[in-house]
Design goal:
Elements (H helix, E strand, L loop, with lengths): L3 H25 L3 H27 L5 H31 L5 H21 L3
Length: 123
């Protein structure tokens, strides 16, 4: 039997994988502005999905446990993909000058990855 801690660690690592793959996609294939716009749009879609699930729970159409499961399967991965695309686009856009804005954006792009690893292996 897999423990609850191991299941949580695997979930966090899977979400981190979504983020890192979309960050790599923003660096490798898409244009910087295109990655930024797609990332913002995908984050907005994930927020609308989460809001819709919350409204369905508040109106007693679906159970809260189902809303939590659906948000973990739909909204959270979509948000992580959108965040990775947006941060990758910002890093590429600010990388032209390499000033303090570039360093701040690089720190912001690395923060979800660092926090995800720390959260996955926390006691």
């Amino acid at each position: 039997m897999i423990s609850h801690k191991t299941k949580t660690m695997l979930l966090v690592l899977a979400l981190l994988g979504f983020y890192l793959c979309s960050l790599w996609l923003a660096f490798a294939f898409t244009l910087a502005q295109q990655a930024l716009v797609q990332g913002i749009g995908l984050c907005a879609v994930a927020a609308v999905a989460a809001l819709t699930l919350w409204l369905l729970v508040q109106s007693s159409i679906i159970e809260p446990w189902l809303s939590i499961a659906l948000s973990g399967v739909i909204a959270l991965p979509a948000f992580m993909i959108g965040l990775g695309l947006a941060m990758g686009g910002l890093v590429r856009m600010t990388g032209q000058k390499r000033d303090w804005k570039y360093g701040l954006v690089c720190l912001g792009a690395a923060a979800p990855a660092i926090l995800g690893v720390l959260a996955a292996f926390a006691n």
